[in-house]
Description:
Strand order of the largest sheet: 1-2-3-4-5
Helix content: 25-40%
Shape: globular
Oligomer: single chain
Order of helices and strands: HEEEHEE
Low-confidence stretches: none
Amino acid sequence: xxxxxxxxxxxxxxxxxxxxxxxxxxxxxxxxxxxxxxxxxxxxxxxxxxxxxxxxxxxxxxxxxxxxxxxxxxxxxxxxxxxxxxxxxxxxxxxxxxxxxxxxxxxxxxxxxxxxxxx
Length: 119
C-alpha cells in the first residue's frame, strides 16, 4: 500500500524536525545515544545524555497550532509508552539511569520549543 501525498509530507516534516532537534541538543552539550530507538512498546525519537541524566525525547513537528501545540499531542497513552520504552532501554543497558522525559516542539519555520521534564 502506498502512502498518500499527505502521509509522505508528514513523514518528511517529522524527519526534518528530528534532525533539527538533534542539532539543537548537540549545541546544548548533549550526546546523542540513540535515534529512532525501537522497542515492542513503540519508538523513542531520541535518547540523549544531558549531564548525568538520560532524556527520552519525543519530537513533535507541526505546521501550526490550529489543533493545539505539538506538546499537547503527547497524551497519556504516548507517555505510558515512553515509560515502557525507558524500561526496555534500561533492561538492555543493564542499569537504571537518572532519567527524564522531554518533548521538543518543532514548527515548520524551524522554531524549537524544548520542554525538559515534560511528563
